[in-house]
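Case study 2.
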Amino acid sequence: MTATPPPAPSVPAAIPAEPIPVVVAGALGRMGAEVIRAVLAASDCALVGAIDTTPGTEGDDVGERLGLGPLEVAVTADLEGCLCQASQAARTQSAGAVLVDFTHPKVVYEHTRAAIAYGVHPVIGTTGLSPTQLEDLASFAAKAGIGGAVIPNFSVGMVLLQQAAAAAARFYDFAELTELHHNRKADAPSGTCIKTAELIEELGKTFNAAQVEESETLSGCRGGLRESGLRLHSVRLPGLVAHQEVMFGAAGETYTLRHDTIERSAYMPGVLLTVRRVRQLQGLVYGLERLL
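Prediction:
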């Protein structure tokens, strides 16, 4: 007689993970508003803070301000108070809260350092940090044991362009970079353009050897010159969002790589990917390619 097998042990239902607490700095700006929409649409994220210094908005519901309906998250200009509150609220979680910053080059260093000090993981989309500031923040994050990310561009397409440019640079000795943005962007050249140049320069070669003795009749018209010989050009016009070209030249040919951001929603998959991974980092990383 065949024995009846014992019933399979019941598997307890998986306990859903707590959503990632997210604070958005620059909440009422164009990028900040897009980030808030993305956070609200993500089931594993929760908006817990909205920082903005727009006059007359203190205490307003950020959802009402953005036309999203009431969210019960008030706009505040108090960065440290908001970070402190987010940090305390995340104490029940092992990984902590996240700050997504799209503000201004003049304040982004202080914002990043404050987030690390309060144990909040910074995800920085604001460009304009100097190499010295990046080194200081990386050292501070490492000492504090806080993971963070400085991402000049959250577009996966831009990462692919940068990788293609770095590969092409092996075969070309002449190259120039042009970035084009809306005319409300404060820093030039863009952090993305600088990052692209840095990746190309990892080869250790010199570009654009002089063929003639050049002279500018209008100062700056040949663009910014880096030590490697690469030249970077910036365009600012209404109607643009974010665009970049890398043009290589050789005898009888040019090779051009171009990326165009048509809508800011293109950045949101990269923003959410970084928010989800930053809490597992042990220090500060620079560039989306470090997380892909």
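The helical segments are 30-41, 62-65, 79-89, 108-117, 131-144, 156-168, 191-201, 268-277.
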